[in-house]
Design a protein that fits this description.
Elements lengths: L7 H19 L5 H14 L1 H30 L7
Helix pairs in contact: 1-2
Length: 83
């Protein structure tokens, strides 16, 4: 898995969300540097779990779609004396 990297704009949005969370849920203010440091920590240490779950979800969706396509092929088959 490649390292998770966000653009500066995305990082600013995520840092803002972390700051809001700390303020609302914990009653603490957290600065930009600390929030970005926390974001980097979670991206490095926990991001892989979310990434893998996303892959598993995508794989399950693709499997379901492929099953539907395979069924559609069987529906198109003409009855013949061949098996």
């Amino acid at each position: 898995m490649a390292n998770i990297k966000f653009t500066r704009e995305q990082t600013a949005i995520l840092v803002g969300e972390i700051q809001k969370y700390f303020d609302k849920e914990l009653g603490q203010e957290i600065g930009d540097f600390d929030a970005e440091f926390l974001l980097d920590f979670f991206s490095e240490k926990i991001g892989g779990y979310y990434y893998n779950q996303g892959l598993n979800d995508a794989r399950a969706l693709l499997d379901a779609k492929l099953d539907t396509i395979t069924e559609s092929f069987y529906e198109l088959e003409k009855i013949t004396e061949f098996d």
